[in-house]
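Lab notebook, bench 4. The sequencing result for the construct came back, and we need a structural model before the next group meeting so we can plan mutations. Quick request posted to the team channel:

Model the 3D structure of this chain.
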Amino acid sequence: MDRTQIVEQLPGLRRYARVLTGDAWAADDLVQDTLERACGKWLLWRTGSDLRAWLFTLMHNLYLNQRRAQPTQAHLDIDEVQDRLPGNPSPSDDALDLERCLQRLPADQRAVLLLVAMEDMSYEDTAHILSVPVGTVMSRLSRARARLRTLMERAPAASAPSPAPHAAPPPAADSVGQPPALRRLK
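Done. Here's the predicted structure in token form:
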């Protein structure tokens, strides 16, 4: 095993860790813990297998273990307090909105979305890393994309002006404030 093979995986590991944790310092710690675990468990890696998938599996399992060990904290919804937060809009707000929206996805959906969309992993590799069936990966990815789309559409809406009178009306809801009901197509 050549050191360069591991060094090549660092940018992807850092990206994945950054979005999993939502914090640059915690992401760096997670990458370091992953590399320490990889060194300690090096004999478990099978020569000829996918090193990238093995490292991402180690990282994902470490992240889950760390999350389980943390005490639960009260969740603060940014949408509820956004009017009280100081600051002027800037061009980087779109990136911040995307990051906030990613953090609002459930962890299982966020992990699948990041591995498939950001890291360009196949469904099979993602399923192996997360220890779930391929169908579950596809389902979580679909739900994550839909949820992210919804969250991103809402994020700028809070500060955007109301739509023009000729704009298309929003889809009808079953009751006031409720999203439209989903229909089974089978």
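The radius of gyration is 20 Å.
Will bring this to the meeting.
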